[in-house]
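Hey L., structure's done. Input below.
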Amino acid sequence: MNTPIVYSRKTIAVDVGYSHVKAMSDGGAKASFPSVVAPGDESPLNGLFGRGVEHRVSVRPFFSQKESARRHLVGEAALRVLSATATLSREKPPEIHDVLLLTAAYLLGADCAELAAGLPLAYYASQRDALRRRLEELSAWVSVGDGPERHITFSRVVVIPQGVGAAFAANVNLPANGYVGLLDIGCYTTDYLLFEPRSGSLVPLPGAHGSFELGTHLVQRALAEAYQARTGAPLPPRRYGEVLFAAANGKSVLYRGRPVELVDVLEEARERVARQIARTVAAEWGDRVDNLAVVTLTGGGALIFGDVLKQELGAVETVSDPVYANAAGFLRMLQGAGTVKGAVRTTKTQET
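Output:
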């Protein structure tokens, strides 16, 4: 006799970014890991040196035998493998995107869940329906690490523009007059929206929202070029995040036992890219940029570019948790929040 499957009903939001996956559940659980996947063949050394690899992920279609499961390394575990795969393509391949999303759902404890997922504003209209249909049909047995195999499927799927999700999470203080801008700065894209306060809510201005392909990947590229110039060896893409993190914390990286200093490159690159972002969004918003009451920053790029953007745009604030802003906003929207309102505390970026 077959044992019936008992599902834990949850509402979850998963933001599969080009750099990291960020996910939240209605129960308060969070998960974040690099958006990297690698083949997960078992190593005979697993378990011999401490805990070993945490994100060993097994995925198999619902109507299949256990022997057909495909094994992956995901996140930090995948970064240690030469065959690791990430993507900066405009449409994330399902074999990468769906493994990342299923891993996040498992880590949140979800089984048959209501799901909110996102797309950059520029790609939303062309990709949302195909993504929603694919995720509605997604049904797989998943295990992570030494955890039990669980059936993961989604009872409802909502696809939301990433900048819009961030706006629902930002909850800026409503100004007495002037416009409210929002910049959601990710690895590959920056989403921008411009709002007008009206009747206690923020109303988006037509023609003043979209995406452009500027983000932290340009800083990573500059670091990679400098690394090659100073060592003679190319920097593997799987190490881009590691090198950026080291430089942001004032540390060198090693090349064959000797330190390679890249902090100076980071400073030049982040100032250059931040000014590109400011010029681009000013061109999109036109003369309305002169009547900005505040520009709210979300996304991981807010932590890198925030102080320079404050110099360029004036009244700039960063939300208290910019990395999880999209996931938090997706969750609010899925739970029925109907308007973008104020006012949760924001943290102003420090002036240089």
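The chain is about 30% helix and 30% strand. The first strand starts at residue 10 and ends at 16.

-- N.
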